[in-house]
Amino acid sequence: MQLIALIQIFIISIYVKSTQENNLSEENEEYLRFPSNFLLGAATAAYQIEGAWNVSDKGESIWDRFTHEGNDRIVKNETGDVACDSYHKFREDISLLKQVGADAYRFSLSWPRILPNGFSNKVSKDGIKYYHNLIDELLANDIEPIVTLYHWDLPQILEDAGGWLNPLVIDWFVDYARIAFKEYAPKVKKFITLNEPSDNCIHVYAMGIHAPGKLSLHGIGEYICADNMLKAHARVYRMYQNEFKNTYNGSLGINVHSRNFYPKHENDSESAKIAFQFAIGWILHPIYSEKGDYPDLMKRMIAIKSQQQGYLRSRLPELDAYWINYIRGTSDFIAINHYTSVRVEQGNVELEPSFYNDQGLIRDQDPTWEGTISVWLKIIPEGFGIILRKLAAEYNNPPMYITENGVSGQNTPDDDHRVTYFEKYLKEMLICIHRDKVNIKGYLVWSFLDSLEWERGYGEPFGIVYVNFTDPERKRTLKKSAHWWQKVIKYRSLKIPTHENVSTITAP
Questions:
Q1: Sorted alphabetically, which keywords does the UniProt record give (predicted)?
Q2: Cβ contact 302:315 at 8 Å
Q3: Rounded distance, CA 342 to CA 362, Å?
Q4: CA distance 138 to 145
């Protein structure tokens, strides 16, 4: 009981500290400045912006197939066939990045653009050349490329062979990664293996809303998928470490989607603990904890549920001693995606079995939190600070990069709300850096361009650059938020001189 009381006091103190942080920032100008050598930039993903889905010898991806099948699984049955047409307009995009002043640009490689049939026996010369041209153009403009190997666009032919449920996908991913490293590691110093592996698997198998949309495997598919992704990440890291790291002095990290979990009721810190271990510890615990392996709490809860449901063994695959030792330590940094927070309380959701049901939690969001046009995204900046401090405390304060953070809005260049969102969230991050010594090395806006937001189509854009999707030329326009970022990067501070304040800027 004494331990529980201490935990409750700690949580309350963190919350009180967070509610005071905006004032703290205003009182201490140093807290508004970015550290020296801190990377500021923006991020995108291949399927969401490139278009050119069947140009040259590019193979079909699972998102090509998923969107082309229609069935209203994507809002208005929209596709990424053309998207922002960045495949043809990447030089214009980089010119805009340069205009904003970005230090870095995170983008992803399209696996089927590089390996048209998914396997390493056929490499596309055009696909390889496209990314060389993109990287070279970035470097020529003093913008650091940060490359994600996989952002959800698996070659369809590999999905036909079982995709992330087939353990052979580990070898296929290593083969693909080796080709990418051979080509781009001399130029690229930061790689990310997989974007949000746990969320990707949950969206496909527990929710059925992302390609290839296999809801019928809920409760089993998401765990097999993430298990294979974790092993694939580790294999790629060891390969990179042995064959490329020392030669090119680069680094490779793992990506997670980090929400903050608030207990809905007082005296219920256990709910937030469970939610964290399932959502974030699931991927980070085997890599960063001393013990390795999946979190004990997660293993125990899934095993109990599986037994109650009549399964002969836990639906969560077991990591044996070999994999525990092999996976531990396989990341040079954590790439963190963050948007919002949720509340959790004890209770069961209906979909049984499933990742959500196994936690015995019900999630919602406080109706008093500020909303956006995306029903899932509430603006709760203090949650950002809380989760960053928790990650630092839980995993020995490893190097971290914020690789996605942003907010949706109406389809217009006039986006004052986005500026306000960035100001609030960045203040929380800078307090973590300056006061709490959280080891954050960079921040990348999601997203640079308005783009296809997966199952939500084009109607909930996140970009700081407006893209006119009714224009065949996909005309780009810098939004107010892009002009604001231009000043923030110029002064390396959230304190912008009055004569250059964004409020004086009229959106084009």
A1: Glycosidase, Hydrolase, Signal
A2: yes
A3: 10
A4: 7
H or E, element range at 5: helix 2-19
Structure-token match 């996976």, residue found: 327
> Does 266 participate in catalysis according to the annotation?
no
Identified catalytic residue from 50, 382, 404, 460: 404
Euclidean distance between CA atoms 488 and 33, whole angstroms: 9
Which burial class, exposed, middle or buried, applies to 71 when counting CB atoms under 10 A from its CB (0-12, 13-18, 19+)?
Answer: exposed
Which amino acid is located at 375 in the chain? V
Per-residue exposure over 244-278, b if at least 16 CB sit within 10 Å of its own CB, e if not? bbeebebebbbbbbbbbbbbbeeeeeebbbbbbbb
Summarised one tens digit per residue, pLDDT across range 58-106 is: 999 999 999 999 999 999 999 999 999 999 999 999 999 999 999 999 9
pLDDT reported for residue 400: 98
Q: Is 402 helix (H, G, I), strand (E, B) or coil?
A: strand
DSSP-based three-state secondary structure for 334? strand
**CA 305, CA 309: separation in Å to the nearest integer?**
6
Low-confidence spans in the chain with pLDDT less than 50: 1-16, 19, 504-508
